[in-house]
Amino acid sequence: MSRIGNAQLTIPGGVTLTQGEGVITVKGPLGEVKSPLPQGISLDVDGNVAKVKRTDDSRQQKERHGLTRALLNNSLAGVSTGWKKNIELVGVGYRVQLKGKELVFSLGYSHEIKFPVPEGVKAQVSDQTKLEITGIDKQLVGQVASNIRALRPPEPYKGKGVKYSDEVIRRKAGKTGKAGKGK
């Protein structure tokens, strides 16, 4: 019994679902997302309520059942409200600029890092150290944010680097010098 797979999906106003061959197309006010529909999984739509069903109770079908429902829920939320990730740059001289469709980072290296913003994702720089990534595809927004964070991950001693705004960095104690050594 998949608790996630058996949960009903509420379709927001202005959003339509259409089934195709192995894919569900979700259209809403913010755009269109395609969600996979594996073999043996079906979708029943009744008004503004959708339910994902499976044909048998094999382990593989149970796994696909919950996964399909979760992906469909993410698609519904994406086309109606969208997804966003907030990123902060912490460190002296660390900054970001948006030039056309490219993000230009100064992260303490000897050169600037140019990061092209992919299609389907919007980047907005509110401050030189704050960045917001938005889009309708949850996976794509998360992957772009992760790739940006990987440019200079936060270090545990001073906390400098690129981090998510809600991320908590566990700090380590630095070296403690022994007083009087060598004197």
Nutshell version of this structure?
The protein is α+β, with helices and mostly antiparallel strands.
Question: What's the rounded overall pLDDT mean?
Answer: 92
Order of helices and strands: HEEEEEEHEEEEEEHE
Tally of individual domains: 2
Instruction: Assign the CATH superfamily of the largest domain.
Output: Ribosomal protein L6
Q: How would a textbook summarize the main sheet?
A: 4 strands, antiparallel
Stated plainly, the CATH topology of the largest domain is called Outer Surface Protein A, domain 3
- CATH class category label of the largest domain: Alpha Beta
Shape: elongated
Helix and strand composition category: alpha+beta
Secondary structure: helix percent: 10-25%
Strand content: 35-45%
CATH architecture designation of the largest domain: Alpha-Beta Complex
The Rg value, from CA coordinates, equals 22 Å
What count of helical segments does DSSP give? Answer: 3
Low-confidence stretches: none
Q: Order of strands across the widest beta sheet?
A: 11-12-7-13
Calculate the terminal CA-CA distance, rounded to whole Å.
Answer: 72 Å
